[in-house]
Amino acid sequence: MPTDILGNAVLDFQNKKHTADIITYSSLDEEDTIPVPYLFRDYKNMPKLEQNALALCKGDVLDIGCGAGSHSLYLQEKGHNVIALDYSAGAIEVCKKRGVKNVVCSNIYDYSGRQYDTLLLLMNGIGLAGKLNQLNKFFNHLKSLLKPNGQIILDSSDIIYMFQEDEDGGYWIPDNDYYGEVTFNMEYKNQKSEAFDWLYIDYNTLQRAAIANNFNCKLVFEGEHYDYLATLSLIV
User: Fold this and answer.
1) With helix as H, strand as E and coil as C, how does the chain read?
2) Which residue of 11, 28, 147, 236 has the lowest C-beta tally within 10 Å?
3) pLDDT tens digit string along 114-134?
């Protein structure tokens, strides 16, 4: 995104200039806010899902879409060799200021050359795939970053609840697209990003896609708001 909405917001907070939160607009006709202080939460203020995910991390970790670096900082303190990766230059600058030792500013598809024991994709990091038909491409790239006995830890949400339910218990959803494909814009202090695609994926669809890409897929935690945590490992 030409306008680094996330980076500008977290830099302001880090520099004690926080006066506004991030506003998101979606193709679901939803307007929402991302409270910037929440991106700086410590371990005790993280949801149980995230705490479970961090406990599952092993070995060398690549924190994909690290944001302000809260997960990376915790893992670093626990002795993991962690690399914090984000496309946002502002977010990476904040990670450095907060004490994350190893950072990379890059699009995930432009990053290569090293393999990890754990690929961490929290806050619906699998959304980076954009659309369901791009999931094979996304998984293939993640394979190139994964050690043979490595794991992918990710969370997502089944957003079927956001669609109108009929009297028979069915849902009115678009015929031509997977219902978890959403387009977003982000706004911060009157600056607005270009539209970008984001994927929410229900667990059954994730499992089918994982198996098709030679991954074992395990559901390890279910949250209270249609969210879940899963691990993927290569089938050998």
Assistant:
1) CCCCHHHHHHHHHHCCCCCCCEEEEECCCCEEEECHHHHHCCHHHCCHHHHHHHHHCCCCEEEECCCCCHHHHHHHHCCCCEEEEECCHHHHHHHHHHCCCCEEECCHHHCCCCCEEEEEECCCHHHHHCCHHHHHHHHHHHHHCEEEEEEEEEEEECHHHHCCECCCCCECCCCCCCCCEEEEEEEECCEECCCEEEECCCHHHHHHHHHHCCEEEEEEEECCCCEEEEEEEECC
2) 236
3) 999 999 999 999 999 999 999
